[in-house]
Amino acid sequence: FFFLMIRRPPRSTQSRSSAASDVYKRQEQVYETRQVQRNQEVEQKPVQNYRKERVQMSSDLEQMRSGQHSIKNELSSILAEYQSTRDEYDLLRKELSSMRKVNTDMAINYDTLKIEGESQK
Asked: N or C: which end of the chain has fewer CB within 10 A?
């Protein structure tokens, strides 16, 4: 009997388990490479988001500072106006007090003159 044998191409190693192991190792390498790529993408997204948020927060902070600056200026002008009004009020009060005193003195003088005038009659 002659058996016609179909010859298979030679393997790099003769052990069957070694060939399966090579395939498995290649699959692991591909999986690890993909996992590394995914990890890099995941790591980059938060960094990009952080940078965007940082820029936005910086912009918001700058707006708040400029708003605070304008509020401080406005408060300063209101305080200056209040102080000026307060000074005017104090001055008017002094004038009024002085006028009342003059009025009182005049009334006393009038009453004194009136009494003296009646006593001479």
From this structure: N
Distance CA 8, CA 16 (A): 13
Please tell me the predicted confidence (pLDDT) of residue 90: 93
**Biggest alpha carbon distance in the chain?**
180
Q: What is the mean pLDDT of each run of 10 residues along the chain (121 residues)?
A: 56 56 68 77 71 85 86 89 92 91 83 73 60
Token look-up 């209101």 returns: 78
Q: How far apart are alpha carbons 75 and 91 in whole angstroms?
A: 24
Cα–Cα distance list, 50 to 16, 54, 55, 56 (Å): 52, 6, 9, 10
